[in-house]
Structure formats: structure tokens, C-alpha cells
Amino acid sequence: MNQRAVLLVNLGSPNSSSVSGVRKYLREFLMDGRVLDAPYPVRFGIVHFMILPWRPKKSAEAYEKIWTAEGSPLLVTSRKVQARLQQRLGMPVELAMRYQNPSIDKALEKLRAEGVKKLLLIPMFPHYAMSSYETAVARVASLLTKIAPEMSLSVMAPFYEHPGYIKALVGSAADYLKQPYDHLLFSFHGIPERHLHKSDPTSCHCLLKTECCAGTSPVHHTCYRAQCLKTARAFAKSAGLPDDKFSIAFQSRLGRDPWLQPYTDHVLETLARTGTKKLLVICPAFVADCLETLEEIGIRGRESFLQAGGEELTLIPCLNEHPLWIAALEKMVREWLAPGRAATPSAASEISGFASSRQSRPQKTNASMENA
Q1: Domain boundaries defined on the chain
Q2: Residue pLDDT, tens place only, 330-350
Q3: CATH fold of 4-158+338-371, please?
Q4: How far is the C-alpha of 71 from the C-alpha of 150, rounded, in Å?
């Protein structure tokens, strides 16, 4: 009996591309207080009366464009990554989604039945955001106290600068960078600016200080923007890109509140109108291709770029099943397995540490935790 195991958790996908399937997914996703961070009555009203009456049909049409015979691209790819990592490690590796299926509770129940005592959680989000990394960690920690309180939990910290992750990103893009192109755009998933402020433990740094993301700061441990910029710069340095050859933008905004800027859709049009003809786009915040990469960038983004005067937009695939990415995940796990590894306060504990500082932080958990 193997007493150690790994749990990979990504965001999730509808069970089907039907309107009803998408509606169910959106309801669960948007009712998460770390995604739509308004008081419950307000959140309920926005989701059920302003979004769900119209958004599912539009989103279902988008999902239908990328849906495969096997199902959701995100889920299909994630299962393949799970299988390959488990084969290389020779130990249990489970897959779960924060929303919909496969569910976190079913994964934990399976691991408990297998006699697992020590669990490594790898949130499949390179960067810390309350609406992705944090909600995944909090959900796993909360369910673990109910399902398997005797199981110790280690949490992989955001790996935005992990050498294996950067190497995999550069390696996966290598063939595209060898071809003639004018510009490379890093398109990260956007978040509302208020999320950045809420994740700032000092409440006086993020977006409030000049060059707040420059250099190093303890605040950067939970700063999504700073981590995205560090990923792009590490990639550029490794790939030998000059500063004028790339830029950074943020996609997928929802609602009227200000999100991180510049916005990808605006940048695509601006680049085309200012002479960029051949554009490469890479989306490092996503480790597997999904709606936001395949449809938002690969279809709609390409159309916008071409209509604005560009000639060619090439979407660099996400890491997906790239051998270097599987190797990076294996290295992360083996570092956790290494004997004598010192335990420090975990990412889950850090989340709980300033739980009282703002709304929608997770509760303390009785499960034993340590940092991976």
C-alpha cells in the first residue's frame, strides 16, 4: 500500500457543451465567493438574474466550437497528464476539478480508501490568484478535514518561476520562435484589480506603489500580477528575446469593474494597426488548452487581429502533455518525496493566516499541512 499520493486540481469544465451543462457549471463557478467576491445576497442576484439568463447560451456556442469527440479539451488533456505522471512516478496520482467533475471529494474518498496518509496537492495554476489557486487550496483543505482528517496535506506553491516550468514553456514554444514573426504576446488570464488588493496582506502595496511589481517583496507571494510579469521575463531571458520583441496583456475580463491591464483584445487590435503582421500568442497562465485559449484567442482573437490589419496570428499551444512539462511535474513531486525535506508553513496555512483580513478567506483546517 502506497501511503503517499499526488492530487492535481484544475479549474474545471462543463460536463457537456449543452446550454444546461454550461449553466450548471457557470452557477457553481460564479457562486464561489472567491470568484465573484460580493456578499452572498448580492452574488446570488447577479448570478441568477443578470448572468445565467443569457450567458449560458453564448458560452455553450463557444464551447461547441472547441468540444472534441472525447469531451472537454481541458479534461481530456488533464487525464492524459495524470496518467503519464502516474506512470513515471509509480504512485497514485488523482485528478480533480474545482468545479464539476471529476470532483475533489470523490478524489479524496478514493485516496482515503487506498490508505494514503500523505498527500501532495498541486494546484495547476502557475500564479497565485484568489479565484484560482486560492479557491482550489481552500476547497481541498476544507473537504480533507471532513473526509480524511488523518491525512497530512502538502501544497505546491505557485510555480511561476520554477525552472522546470520555465524550461517547459520555452521548450514548447521553441519551434514557433524559430519561424519568422514580428512580435510575441504573453496573454495571461485577467483578474479584477480588487482581487489584487484583497490578496495584498499589507493593503498598501499592490497597484498603490510605483513599480509595485518590480524587484522582490513578500507581497509578491500572493500577487498575481507580479508573478505573471516574472514568468514573462524569465521566459524572455531563457529564450533570448529582446525587450521590444514581446509584450504582456490580460484576457477574459467580465463585468464593468477595472481588471488588470492592458486588455488582450485591445492589444491585439493595437498591434495590428501599428504594423505587426505576424503575431505569436502564448498563454502561460493555462497549463492545458481550454476555452480561454482555443476559442477566445485562437478564434475570436485571431479574427480581431486580422480585421484590424494583421496577417497571421499563431496561438502557441499550452504545455498540455509536453514531455518537458511532465518532467517538471515529476521533479516537483520528487522534491517533495526527498528524505529530510524541511517543512515550512504551507500555502494552505498562509491562506488561512490572513483569513480574517478580508471577506471570503478559508477557515482554519485541522488537517496537518506543510509546504511542498
Answers
A1: 4-158+338-371, 163-315
A2: 999 999 999 766 433 344 444
A3: Rossmann fold (3.40.50)
A4: 35
